[in-house]
Amino acid sequence: MPPEWHPHAACWMAWPGSSVVATTQRQPLLNELSRIAHAIALFEPLRVAVDPAHLDEARRALPDNVTLYPIPVDDHWMRDTGPTFLLDDALTPHALCWNFNGWGKPWMQCIEADAKVAQRVAHALAERTSMTPSLAPIVAEGGSLLVDGDGTLIVTETSILNENRNPGLTRGEADAVFRHWLGVTKVVWLPGSALDTITDGHVDGIASFVRPGVLLATGAEGSDEWAREMRENLKALLLARDARGRHFDIGLLRAPDFDALPVDLATDADFAPEYVNFYLPNGGVAMASFGDAKADAHARDIVQQAFPERRVVQLPLRAVARRGGGIHCCTQQQPAAVLT
């Protein structure tokens, strides 16, 4: 699995059906997805899986240079429902499907079509390219995987080892799966989150690689349980070593001040203001702002310092964040078959 800064052949997104979001919330969500798509299309080709009933809607809202793939789609979390794209030693692309099961919550509205999105995307590509689809032997999601391209994978216990996904799976068994399929040599386990009732503590809300050995991580102050969980994850990162034996150099992206946010956001239990949940298109960074002007500017400065050669595009995120995710969750990179 190449790191996210490996050159991309394209970015994948999903244009949702109408069943997963209340009618009053749908248009604000679509507006944000459209802004994310337009931002990414500035940097790289964009491919979007679209519920066939919403093709005209998607065409009107998305950039002119987008390629639409009409397949059944419920939700817009392509990071989790879509395949993880791999390159083998011969640079042959593979699409690895993780058996999405609604984050272990079968009552989630989005499970029916989205359980098959990864395979449908993989087969659509296989008809046009040399893409090879494969089925992983465990349940996981793209947001639960963080690689550095240098042998290291970071995951969380609450997601991968959760009984709602992989009953009885041990760390050792999971390590063997990841080593075989992702080509990693070291798996770093973080405790994750018991408070995250949607993804059970995906790693892409906790940290993101800048380059091998260097991370940006979510920082949290205060005495509440969420802050305590974040500090436990940070502690695990500080104690860990990567595949090359290095300790991680970690920069913190602190959460916005909830007192500076609109009341409807600050009191929303699913609102996920995670600056680390950014996407790295070719030559760029697409990251969120949440409405705390000081924290938004500070986070942008840190991200720009971390990626001085990239153009940072910061997008207001409310509707997407209120559904428990961010820009990274809405996107999935398809790596180019090139050496780096």
Automatic annotation (TrEMBL):
Keywords: Hydrolase. One of its GO terms (molecular function) is protein-arginine deiminase activity. GO terms for biological process: putrescine biosynthetic process. Signal peptide: none annotated. It holds the Pfam family PAD_porph. It comes from the Bacteria. InterPro entries: Peptidyl-Arg-deiminase_porph (IPR007466). This is Agmatine deiminase. It comes from Pandoraea oxalativorans. The lineage of its organism: Bacteria, Pseudomonadati, Pseudomonadota, Betaproteobacteria, Burkholderiales.
